[in-house]
């Protein structure tokens, strides 16, 4: 990675790169960080055309030119690329715009050092290499992007929002073509690396962030958020669930409403149906976690693990203070605070004794 300092234009950036890397016998495709929607098909096409040409320009035709450079052609051949601010009134009527993405042969790259900053912004424009290439009779090829949307650049938050909308629509369409059922798909947000199995159903207002793998026969209910998780087959999530990084949900497990999991493995047939936090935990098979259960995994200094073994039942409103283990087929009574390990086949209860106190006056009775 090279730092362009000061920032004096695209041509200046390539000059720095060329000086550092000595590009004498290399081809180069120049891409921009503010073109996130670029299609790989277009890049393959550029590389193919570069085998027969010295300069390949990717153009596109937006509905409205909001400031893109203009590709000027004469007799069907590219003569120059003019920045919008430097264009004449006649040139601004030309429909073909410059996406900024260009490819160069090693021969054309040697002309980068000849680029000057004789323009309104006093910058070194990479597009000036077109004029120079024409002067030296280099072959110049204009190709248009497969879809004009793929060439859109981002200069402000409004354009970022437009690009995000386009990208999300592409991801949703791809998922639905693979067989994912989305109810109100416009309210579902995906990540580019999300993978789906068969027969997946997603209800409205679901956010799936990066590094999520979803298996077969999965239902994700409304208002759930999933990030950095592996979801196996026949899993039910939500509504209003938060699945955080490091979570693994094994086959036929269930995460219900208002449940949060983090860095935990929920094994086969285990259920966390309501209002619980499970962090840094291993939940073995056939475990039932009651409403309001919390794994107290952080003591203010470090995080510790909770292990709940196969077949155990955790009563409602229980706190499991890690590090702690609940043995096989054990029961934690509702309202308990568990600070010590519980053996197999044991009922553990830390509930305070219930007392009955008779009320002696009318005010107390109210």
Helical residues, percent: 10-25%
Kindly identify the CATH topology of the largest domain. UDP N-Acetylglucosamine Acyltransferase, domain 1
**What's the shape?**
elongated
Work out the strand percent: 25-35%
Major beta sheet, specifics? 13 strands, parallel
Helix vs. strand class:
alpha/beta
Straight-line N-to-C gap: 74 Å
Task: Look at the structure and name the CATH superfamily of the largest domain.
Answer: Hexapeptide repeat proteins
- Count of helical segments? 6
Q: How many whole angstroms does the radius of gyration measure?
A: 31 Å
Q: How would you characterize the overall build of this protein?
A:
This protein is of the alpha/beta class and 366 residues long. It has 2 domains: 10-151, Spore Coat Polysaccharide Biosynthesis Protein SpsA, Chain A; 170-348, Hexapeptide repeat proteins (UDP N-Acetylglucosamine Acyltransferase, domain 1, 3 Solenoid). It is built from 6 helices and 29 strands. It has helices at 10-21, 40-50, 106-109, 129-135, 157-177, 362-365; strands spanning 28-30, 55-60, 70-74, 77-82, 97-104, 140-144, 181-182, 201-202, 207-208, 213-214, 219-220, 225-226, 230-231, 236-237, 242-243, 248-249, 254-262, 265-266, 271-279, 281-283, 288-289, 294-296, 306-308, 313-314, 319-321, 324-326, 331-332, 337-338, 347-348. The radius of gyration is 31 Å and the shape is elongated. The model has no long low-confidence stretch (mean pLDDT 93).
